[in-house]
Amino acid sequence: MRTLLTSLSVLALAACSASEDVSAQTGDTEAVASEASFSVEEMGSFDEPWAMTFLPNGIALITEKEGTLRFVDFAPDTPRLGSISGVPAVDYGGQGGLGDIVPHPDFAENGLVYFSYAEAGEGDTRGAVVARARLVMDEADAGRLEDVETIWRQMPKTSRRGHYSHRIVFGPDGYLFIASGDRQELEPAQDMTNNLGTIVRLNDDGSVPEDNPFADRGGMTAQIWSYGHRNPLGLAFAPDGQLWDVEHGPAGGDELNRVERGANYGWPTVSDGEHYDGRPIADHDTDPSFATPAIVWTPVIAPGGMIFYTGDMFPAWRGDVLITGLSTNALVHVEIDGDTASEVARHDFDNRLREVEQGPDGAVWLLEDGEGGRLLRLTPGG
User: Fold this and answer.
1) Over the stretch 96-147, which tens digit does the pLDDT of each residue have?
2) Catalytic residue among 163, 229, 284, 347
3) Can 163 be counted among the known catalytic residues?
4) Number of domains in the chain
5) Is residue 177 part of a domain?
6) What is the spatial distance between Cα 49 and Cα 70, in angstroms, rounded to a whole number?
7) How far is CA 346 from the centre of its chain?
């Protein structure tokens, strides 16, 4: 069951200092001398938390995979905890359930939030959807979603319960980007008549921008910004406006990609991993027609989420990528230099890490994966 610390009191867990050396695509890297040290505070726990976001007023929204949307107000004088009603029925199971959530860029004016979840289809099928709704919070311990509207569907629906991806992010120009996994079907990622294995770009109402790279083809093809993706679980814009994603490879070959307009990232034709049954897959460098990852991880990190850090609390991280690791129980620090990237540090934690977010004050927030997943706040020190 979900538990929260009484009155949102905090418990200091540990102090983490400079990271261990790590191994990435280019081999061993040295720990950076100025790498951040931090203290960790536990702020509560949740049932299978999947994503979180901060509203402009500092209230945090947290999704729980089974279909519950929570809110936490960390105001020191009047802390609040509660649930938000109005979430549609989710198809919970496997990797499916309630997923990502983000506010509209103009949330302060329109009150709109966007969220993703797995939706049941006809027969034994399911697929991701993205919906938007007006968030109303006029009670101390409860809120509600009003005027819920589905604006995008992952198609076709399949009987499988994995690789939804359904990360969502607004770009600096106001367009909505959605990561759509291959649903464990492989070949559809190279078939542009569907939207599996793609990153799509939409207007905020779900319509297709006229300048999308394949807009003139119509149908679901018009939605596509890039394709040939497997299971992107991190999607974020760099301070320079460039979109990046981090995605799960098969057995080996997790990827960090600079996501370019109209590019094909090769899955399942190429990958620097191999199939789980041991069947080989051609490496990326065997076919230059496909976009090449900026980093490949073997062994995998099993990414959960990612952000570009832009705050002031951790100068050593500013402008860089922070990625949560599921199988690695780690926060991975990646330095970005134009179109290149390198892992420079890795911070170990006790449990699988699902989500990372930057707080309004520049603190870094983490969500652990699974039942009783804790909400952790990182601040300088240690």
Assistant:
1) 999 999 999 999 999 999 999 999 999 999 999 999 999 999 988 999 999 9
2) 163
3) yes
4) 1
5) yes
6) 10
7) 18
